[in-house]
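BUG: 3D viewer hangs when loading the predicted structure for this chain

Environment: internal workstation, default settings.
Expected: structure renders.
Actual: progress bar stalls at 90%.

Input used:
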Amino acid sequence: MATKTISITEEAYDRLNFKKAKNESFSEVINRLTNKVNILDFAGILSKEEWKKLEENVKKSRLLSRKRLSRITL
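Structure tokens produced before the viewer hung:
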């Protein structure tokens, strides 16, 4: 993997170093703090039962939102 050298102030370095975990590289802490995540990291996180319950709740929320919106736009 290619690397880049950057210049930062001592204050920025100290702040970044404070956020860094013991065995974490600066690249890893920057990626973590800037929310660089792969959506596939979440694959399989919910059981089938949890997924169904979440899906039902989303459908109910959307229905309630549509009802509220229809009252407002009349």
